[in-house]
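Sequence in, structure out.
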Amino acid sequence: MRTIGLILGTGLIVIAVGSVSPRPVLPAAQTALAQSEPPSFSGRLSGVVDSADQTEVTLQSGEQLALASDTHIIRSVPTDAQSFQPGDFVAVTATRQADNTLLASVVNIFPESMRGYSVGQRPMDSGNLMTNATISDLPVNLMTNATVGEVAVAGFTVAFPGGTDEVTLASDARVNRFEEMAIADLLPGTSITAYVNHGAAEIITID
């Protein structure tokens, strides 16, 4: 610790100044890398596969997506409401109605390997709600990922940590079943949509 005396007018002010450690100097190559390395991407990304291996997918546009052991690769197959079974884990896109139920426009049925994925309920940017839960017995109308408990022709109820909701299907609601795929299915020329977290793909959907 050193002191600096400053004379202001007729008075002397003494300021204590701590010792300052010099900033480390990075090698030129490391400095250039730090400046040029882009921030890792998070969000939704669509593209066409150029190549894929066990560690990453490269798109024809040049983007690279890291693959992890828990990356899910799926294909969406259209089905109908008759496919619902008690205990199904589903994703419901819906809007909250005046009677507090959810009117679903899209319901996706997850494979067993994705049970519990992002469980819970949260608002979406579009104004819908997203709910990951287990279908049981209550009215809902938003985007819900849940497990089906009691299913009716026009809807079903979902339960999730902290709540339940009753889901009614819109007349034009789309129902899909997600089928588990493999890295070998990511052939060059395949169109995909990836949900990315800090550069790593959490879910890749084969379009």
